[in-house]
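Pipeline run #58 for the internal structure catalog. This entry was flagged by the ingest filter as a single-chain record with no existing model, so it goes straight to prediction. Upstream metadata was stripped on purpose; only the residue string is passed forward. Reviewer on rotation: M.T. Logging verbosity set to normal.
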Amino acid sequence: MVKKILVSQPKPTSEKSPYYDIAREYGVELVFRPFIKVERLTAREFRQQKVNISAYTAIVFTSRHAIDNFFQLAKDLRVSIPEDLKYFCVTETIALYIQKYVQYRKRKVFYGSTGKIADLVPQMVKHKTEKYLVPMSDVHNNSVTELLDSKKLIHKECVMYRTVSDDFTPEEVANFDYDMMLFFSPAGVQALNKNFPDFEQGDIKIGTFGPATAKEVTEKGLRLDLSAPTPEFPSMTGALRNFLKNQQ
């Protein structure tokens, strides 16, 4: 019987999160503890890419991590951000986050609605003369490059941050007593291996979100007990609720 679940994500900021409803409804304890964290490249590491931030007239942001690391790295490099720099973001929520660093002006901030960069491209094409810089994680594929190339946009992708294991303390290792673990990225599964090299699954259930994460679990020789999204359960919380319901 699953009673204690480790969710490898930050604790929800809203009390209205479905996770809290699940905890109350099924009497389970949920512990939110990320297995990975985002780390900014040093100014020296970034310089090795030979990218001159000042040469670009527009920045494309795909996440809040990208915003944080762009502005912090610009500060580290002593690059001043021009007033007329344009920002293209994959969602309005990410666009509004820019206010943390610069004054928000609608005439220079553009955003999509789906969270996918493909949805943002038509707006970028309307500003074809801009020189686009795309801050990225160290873990990425060439899909963005290929997409922007296909539209003949002037662009450059650069790595500004990386995903690393958020190591467990000796106390956390000693008190590792979960009945179930939920993972949301291949890097999270890899971090499990790093923190617990002798991990034996036994009766511990493992749930994953996304096909790449599920693949990482099975390739590590672990048993996959729950996977999302599915047509019936497009969210992890929906899939988890169904899983707990069926075990009663």
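catalog note: Residues 70 and 160 are 7 Å apart (CA to CA).
catalog note: The longest strand covers residues 154-165.
status: ready for reviewer M.T.
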